Amino acid sequence: MPRPPAWLSRFAPRPPQKITPLWGIIFLVVLLLGGLLLTKAAQELDTRLGYRSPVAAERGAEAGTTPRERMLAQLAAEEAEEARTRPYEEPEYRAVPRVGSRVAIWVVAQLKLLFAAFVLAVPMFVLIIEFIGYRSKDPRYDRLAYEFTSLLSPAFAMTAGFGGVMTLMLVALYPKFMSYLMGVFSATLLPYFVLLFAEAALFYTYYLSWGKIGPRIHLFLGLMLNLVGTALMFVANAWLTFMATPSGVSESGALISVWDAVNNYTWMPINIHRLIANIAFGGSIAGAYAAFQFLNAKTAEERAHYDWMGYIGNFIAVAGFLPLPFAGYWLASEIYAYSQTMGITMMGGAFSWLFIIQAVIIGALFLGINYYLWLGMGRVEKGQVGKGLIPGLLLVISLCFIVWATPRSPITTSEEVAAMGGSSHPVLGYLGVMSAKNTAVNLIILATFVSFVLYRRSAKRLRVGWAKAGTLVQVGILLAAAATVLFYGIKGYFVSAEVRIGYSIPQVLSVLLAMVLVTTLDMMMQRSAESNPVHWGRMPVRAQYVLIFLAVSFTWLMGLMGYLRSGLRLHWHVYGVIRDTSPDAFTPTLGFATSVVSVTVLVFFSLIGFIFWLAALGHKKKLAVAVEEPAPAAAALPAGTAAQPAPGYARGPVEETP
Amino acid sequence: MRVPVPVKLLGLVLGSTLFYTWVGRMVPQKEVLAPEVVEMAADMPTEEMVEVGQEIFNGKGLCNTCHTIGSSGALRFPDLDGIATTAAARIDGLDALAYLAQSIYEPDAYIVPGFSPGMPAIDKPPIALSDDEIKAVVAYLQTLGGEATITMATQLPFAAGAEVTSDVDPPGGEDATAELTGDAGVGTAAATTLTPAGAAGGGGAGLLARYGCTACHATEPGGEETLAGVGSRLSRQEIRRWLIDHEPPLPATYVERVTLAEVRSLTDYLASLEEAQ
Questions:
Q1: Distance from CA of residue B67 to its chain's centroid?
Q2: Three-class SS of residue A421?
């Protein structure tokens, strides 16, 4: 039978396509929105025209208008006349209907900040990954760096878009305050705009020239991109930290020194805190992207690639997350140094309960991070060296989590207060004080570090002669750090507050020192070590959901702490200098604040989901082209476990644990 | 049924967010309002100054954020129990009134041994109490271990334009009132008259009206359910117990909404009705 011509094939009957439930939901939502919009349009039309009986319509046609239209026209004329004669007066504030100016700015600013954090963080670790690829001559690192960078392009547009909207909203809604702030920082505006354009130019050059220019020049571009991005953030941080801890102005707000206004009490602590937090946040979002792609992967190659990418993302997030509490201590101490009142408002006043919410999130984050690391040991052949320690680590982390989330004064009725003999529980109250909480957080960090060391160790077979002794020294260091933390934690109950505050320093230093010493020893011991095969892609699906949960938690935490930073100003635009006299000059309840944070997080993840989808469009094709030999179909793999690795991944250079 | 990955992801993101929102709603909910402007009559009697001062101490002055009254152990700032007595002995050449004024206007001038500097000048932003408000706070502090002697006419040392001398006057008259005006926090300006025992909109009398207590109880003498003189008939504990375990049971609008702070405020107000009667 002769074959029909090719053009005819388009008219041939096609096999029925499977319609997923998701399309049904999308269809319903579109239908519902369409219906609502049509109803609204019909209502407006009706309101504008009014109902007219045939007789009235006939009479109206003769007169040209209905009585209602004539009255509306008269009203409009009166309003226009009033507007013409009214003298110009600049309003202090303008309001956004329904939600109010503050909530509107809050959501837009937070979204802008989240995208900006991502845009600033990703180039930092991309540069490092690209550099590793350049030094090791391993093209996988270069491809990974490029894939991370590809996420930036839409995120960059989002940042610019939200930034523009936020600026317009601030100028429109808070004209007088913005006029004041821009007056103080007018000298920083030009450098800011120059840096902004330089950032955009460098980013697009860096992204679009990938593989087209020499690697050294490309790395230099990446370095410049990071430097400019960091400088940009520092300038913007000067404005917002000035609002909380102003300096360089007189009591009445008159500018004395721009540099002092920039270099206020919390400027550098916020710069450092944000820099580290951005890395943790960016890593977690990159991890979530990898998890998203892993879950949608069709081949073993894709799974292996995205498992590795998820691991890197999580590693970066943890690397940023562990020193974050220490940066937080510094920031808090600077707040106390600036104003005891503000410090006590933060820790013992209106915001003290916020730290219980924070403890719950950070506890969940630590549990998630450790769980992911423990699951990751399964992808290493003979990688069960530390498996026996996992229950102990889980116990330590859980106990510390409980201590950290225990409030000093629980929610009680007056009868319960009477029964307890005060607002604190006679026993549990002791867990709510700073000594217990500092001890708990330091021990959680230490336990997480141990999980990470165990993971690293599981991927290696040590060959140095002193491996056993070295391991014993490592254990000794970790135990000594834990003992130091516990010692100062207990001693803190028996000394004055002034002395007790100082105890956080040896606690923190002992943990940091232990981390540095153990890592150094580990690196020395692993110099001539042999690698155990790492089966990238052999990871339970639930591990990918853990990565996404971590990204949501990081984002939520950023939103919550952003509220704290801004809320500490209470009813001041510039603390103690420019008072907020708008209708929003009060601090909302934590319940309200958390609802706003949640809305912001959901909007962010809707947009970031869209970005993931966009990025996925290009990369799947590239990945498929890169792998010559087709992998077994995903459907043929055992349920609950990830794909077996393709040859190129299982026995190739991927065996190295980055 | 196999749940599609996008639905699982949606569930995870929504579930995590809702969980954290729930945690945020579980903790105590408090709205911190912008402080109100207290305008005090020039002839306000000292007793009323004490009451206004106590309100400022626990409210817009933020004094109780750091200072305790009657606490011991490891404290961040000095406890103020008996401060009226100790103030006189702190610095040679400064009497109690001058010392209290100095501590408020120039807190770093003298640091109590064992404590660190850290108190802001209370007449400056962000707290920025007026001279009259500070006089009221001083009046209250004088009652902690002593008797209030300051009047509205007293010129406090260290205040703006004041001579560095203390001028202790006898208590003033009894008819004066303090007018409390200001922003109620959400853009609606409110103006009320402050009567003794903190009977402002947010004080005991205001709470009585807000929770509908005045539907059954009058505060003037006469009638079976009058609260006049309740401070003489019942102890503070009994009043407090009565506010919690009322017979017949009070409506849900009170039981479910009243806070511990409001119970305290109501107790203070009702106990103070002793003097008024």
A1: 13
A2: coil
Within 13 A of A127's CA, how many CA atoms are on the CB side? 19
| Strand partners of residue B194 | B178
Strand partners, A530: A461
Q: How many other C-beta atoms are found inside a 10 Å radius of the C-beta of residue B167?
A: 14
Q: What is the dihedral of CA A492, A353, A605, A162, to 10 degrees?
A: -100
Do the Cβ atoms of A604 and A111 come closer than 8 Å?
yes
HSE value, Cβ hemisphere, 13 Å, CA-based, for A616: 20
DSSP A231-257: HHHHHHHHHHHHHHS--SB-TT--BS-
Q: Could you report how far apart the first and last alpha carbons of chain B are, in Å?
A: 76
Determine, for residues B187 and A583 on separate chains, whether the beta-carbon distance falls below 8 Å: yes
**Tokens matching residue A432:** 């709510």
Residue partners of A152: CB distance under 8 A and separation at least 6: A118, A119, A122, A123, A203, A207
Confidence of residue A111 (pLDDT cuts 50, 70, 90): very high
Query: For the CA atoms of chain A, what is the radius of gyration?
Result: 30
Residue with tokens 């217990």: A436
State how far Cα A180 lies from the chain centre.
31
Note the pLDDT tens digit of each residue in A184-212.
999 999 999 999 999 999 999 999 999 89
pLDDT band at A421 (very low <50, low <70, confident <90, very high): low
Range 535-564 of A in CB contact (< 8 A) with B: 545, 548-549, 552-553, 556
A-B contacts at Cβ under 8 angstroms: 154
**A interface mutation test: which of B60, B66, B76 has the most A CBs within 10 A?**
B76
CB B119 within 8 A of CB B107: yes
Residues of A in contact with B34 (CB under 8 A): 570-571, 580, 585-586
Q: Of B17, B26, B115, which is closest to A598 when you measure between CB atoms? A: B17
- Interior angle at CA A149, CA A147 and CA A152, nearest 5: 125
Q: Are A314 and A283 in contact (CB under 8 A)?
A: yes
Token match 């105890």: residue? A503
What average pLDDT is seen over chain A? Answer: 83
- The β-bridge partners of A578 are A574
Pairing type for strands A530-531 and A460-461 reads antiparallel
Residue whose C-alpha is closest to residue A375's, from A636, A642, A140, A649: A642
Of residues A128, A460, A464, A490, the one with CA closest to residue A279: A128
**Shortest Cα distance from B86 to chain A (angstroms)?**
22
Contact flag A575-B9 (C-beta cutoff 8 Å):
no
Q: How far, in Å, CA of A394 to CA of A555, rounded?
A: 24
Please return the burial class of B274, using the count of CB atoms within 10 Å of its CB with bins 0-12, 13-18 and 19+. middle
Residues 6+ apart with CB under 8 A from A187: A258
Yes or no, beta carbons of B65 and A411 under 8 Å apart: no
- Give the closest-approach CA distance of B225 to chain A in angstroms: 25
In this structure, which amino acid lies at residue A620?
K
Q: Are B207 and B230 in contact (CB under 8 A)?
A: no
Residue A638 has pLDDT above 60, yes or no: no
Query: Given the structure tokens 């997080």, which residue do they identify?
Result: A601
